[in-house]
Amino acid sequence: MTGANINKINSFKKQKQKEEMKHQVITFALMIIFTLVAFIAVGAGMNKTYVIPLILILALVQVGFQFYYFMHMKDKGHEVISSLIYGGIWIAAVTVLTFTTIIWW
Amino acid sequence: MSIASTQKKGFGAILWDYLTTVDHKKIGNMYLAAGAFFFLLGGIEALIIRIQLIKPENDFISAGLYNEMITMHGTTMIFFAAMPMLLGFMNGVMPLQIGARDVAFPFLNSLGFWLFLLGGILMNLSWFFGGAPDAGWTGYAPLSTSSPGHGLDYYVMGLQLSGAGTLMGGINFLVTIVTMRGPGMTYMRMPLFTWTTFVASILILFAFPALTVGLFLLQFDRMFGSAFFDVALGGNSVIWQHLFWIFGHPEVYILILPAFGIFSEIIPTFSKKRLFGYSSMVFATFLIAFLGFMVWAHHMFTVGLGPVANSIFAVGTMAIAVPTGIKIFNWLATMWGGSIKINSAMLWALGFIPSFTIGGMTGVMLGASTADFQYHDTYFVIAHFHYVIVGGVVFGILAGLHYWWPKFFGKVLNETMGKIAFWLFFIGFHLTFFIQHFLGLMGMPRRYWVFLENQGLDTGNLISTIGAFFMAAGSIVFIINIIYTTAKGEKAANDPWGTGRTLEWAISSPAPEYNFKQLPLVRGLDPYWIEKMDGNTKMTPAEPLDDIHMPNGSILPVVISIGFFIASFGFIYQVDNKSWLIVLFAGMVIAIGSMLIRSLKDDHGHHIHKEDLEKEAD
After folding, report:
1. How many domains, chain A?
2. Which of B155, B261, B374, B495 is least surrounded by CB atoms within 10 angstroms?
3. Are B285 and B353 in contact (CB under 8 A)?
4. What are the transmembrane regions (chain A) (predicted)?
């Protein structure tokens, strides 16, 4: 391999890492903003029917960020892991559904 | 073999070797041995149950002792006999089949085994300390929360310990299969036993937490005055049933899928044909696992979930017959036109197909929720689940023992005795359980310690008990076979069957410590068979001979497990006297202290050097 090629690969890698870093910072900032929004929503004393779904949605998005960006589930080679995580979520969902519907008192 | 291993070792050295081993093959053998021990215990309990029911109003054992017998029989057989023996096969065979030198987490593997063993011992110690658990293997609340004495406390702690061990085993196998497959071993080239190990491990990963949660709630209700299942204080006893069966139904697939895998190895080997419909077998395995999580309430049709819930779970249950049917037809098609060799392993496989199919058929009958109101809690249910668990899982284990015995212990089990054991056990099995279908339909309820005479139940129960003794005789012949083979048997070749298809038959029997001197190159499904068809006697290596990295043994798994074992006694008896909390804390200090040592101390393992490997003969 020639020196020029190696340089190309290195600059490609650098480019990738730079992008990766950008993503990390953006998601981190977003997560802080989401947390602030959640606190403000509660602190402002808004209506419960509005605040609870809002917080839950924010939490869900944060979990997504956590999995996909911080824990790299968006990268290649994570197919088995993500299918296992979704399998677990599915089973938990079915369980919760049961407990909220057919256990009646 | 190396010089060190040909030297005779003292008993102490061997014991220390097994206590500290992290070698998946030795752990597998220990799983098999411990599982066999508990299998005999459970079998003796079964015999006592059948003797009690040999005639109407028998007084062989008291009602209370009978309740303890049925509880311990069920729990022992499921958790401490069937599962560990299957985990033993997974440990002993799966890494060889995927061309790996070890499992992903050898230390965790060892810890899992010792937790299981001490959990099993803990629960059985209850016999000596004031009475065994007596609320049935399902431990339904409020019976389990109000059962006097400490029996149920032993149930909770014993299952919690061994459940943690099983969970570790499952995670270990998952990571091993995902990350440690050898060169060329793609997912769709994995042998069926590896596939079923993988899927059963997924089921363990998802199902056992439900049991853990249920047991924790029960533990808090019994020991710390909470009221999760106490209706009078606003709890709900049905939650236990849901949690138990969310675990319990996948559990039966955790048991049967590896057995399916064993048969899927044996039938092609002795039919001299590749497995028919390999990809549909893999697909069916996943489908069974998926559906298996959505049918648990079919154990609860009579609880009063309502017609809609019952219908949904009934349809789901019947749907499972489809992938299972795919498997049955694939096995039959594998044999069709094959050059079939009938030996002991194959006999068990052949006996399995009709037996299990009968169990599956009664399963669909029970799955019809309206009809289930008639069958529920009768001997029909007993007959059904013994047909699937004995006819499926136990036959699978015995078939697997015959098939892989040379790979585990280096000797082939005696064929004549193997066949005698099969016929005794097979005939005894059908004698015992077939008649129970009819006893159930005639209204004989399960879990009752006596029945009245002249209700048409006398003859059936007598036949059933006679059958149980046939099964015991078969088991005894099997044990004699093991002793005989160990003493007299000749050393087995690498591939003693001559028609081995998968990687484990390409290496020596028993497998060397490092499994593969050079990792083999896998060129397709049934890699060893491919090499044979190309005229090779050995696998093509995928790498040059080099140093092999091995993990170091450790006594810590035993110490950690003993710590939790001691702490369990503290939990159980602190109800009577708070000074038992000292035992609890002492146990926890031992366990957590050892975990700390494990975390802080670096252990990089050791290498088997190239020069030593070269010296060894093949």
Report:
1. 2
2. B374
3. no
4. 25-44, 50-71, 83-104
d(CA B274, CA B329): 14
The residue whose two tokens read 């995927």 is B98
Residue pair B464/B237 in contact (Cβ under 8 Å)? The answer is no
Q: Which of A90, A102, A103 to mutate to test the interface with B (most CBs of B within 10 A)?
A: A102
Interface test mutation site (partner A, options B195, B202, B208, max chain A beta carbons within 10 A): B202
What are B520's strand-pairing partners? B541
Q: What's B523-582 look like in SS3?
A: CCCCHHHHHHHCCCCCCCECCCCCCEEECCCCCHHHHHHHHHHHHHHHHHHCCCCHHHHH
Q: Tell me what ipTM this predicted complex has.
A: 0.82
Residue B1: pLDDT over 60: no
Sort out which chain B residues have CB atoms less than 8 A from A88's CB and list them.
Answer: 205-206
Asked if A103 has any chain B CB less than 8 Å from its own CB, the reply is yes
Q: Is A86 helix (H, G, I), strand (E, B) or coil?
A: helix
Whole-number pLDDT of residue B2: 44
Identify whether residues A12 and A55 lie together within a single domain.
yes
Q: Does A102 touch chain B (CB under 8 A)?
A: yes
Query: Of how many residues is chain B composed?
Result: 618
Specify the CATH class of B10-445+456-554+603-615 in words: mainly alpha
Per-domain boundaries in chain B? 10-445+456-554+603-615, 555-602
In tens, the pLDDT along B494-516 reads: 999 999 999 999 999 999 999 99
A17 with A63, same domain? yes
CB–CB contact A102 B305 (8 Å): yes
Give the domain range for residue A10. 3-74
Nearest CA in chain B to A78: B178
Instruction: Tell me, yes or no, if A94 comes closer than 8 A to chain B by beta carbon.
Output: yes
pLDDT tens track for B345-382: 999 999 999 999 999 999 999 999 999 999 999 999 99
How many whole angstroms separate alpha carbon B539 and alpha carbon B518? Answer: 9
B210 touches chain A (CB under 8 A): yes
Give the residue among B209, B208, B223, B218 at the shortest CA–CA distance from B239. Answer: B218
Shared-domain flag, residues A54 and A102: no
B202 touches A: beta carbon within 8 Å: yes
Quick one: A97 and A60 in the same domain? no
Residue-wise pLDDT for B334-353, tens only, equals: 999 999 999 999 999 999 99
Q: Any CB–CB contact under 8 A between B233 and chain A? A: no
Please state, in angstroms and as integers, the Cα–Cα distance from residue B170 to each residue in B157, B188, B205, B296, following that order. Answer: 20, 21, 6, 21
Contact B521, B539 (CB under 8 A): yes
- What's the full length of chain A, in residues? 105
Domain match, A55 and A30 both: yes
Return d(Cα B200, Cα B207) in angstroms, integer.
10
Residues A36 and A63 in one domain: yes
Question: Is B378 in a helix, a strand, or coil?
Answer: strand
**First-to-last C-alpha distance (Å) of chain B:** 9
Mean pLDDT of B553-578: 96
Hey, are the CB atoms on A98 and B210 less than 8 Å from each other? Answer: no
H-run or E-run covering B550 = strand B548-550
Least CB–CB distance from B206: residue in A91, A102, A105? A91
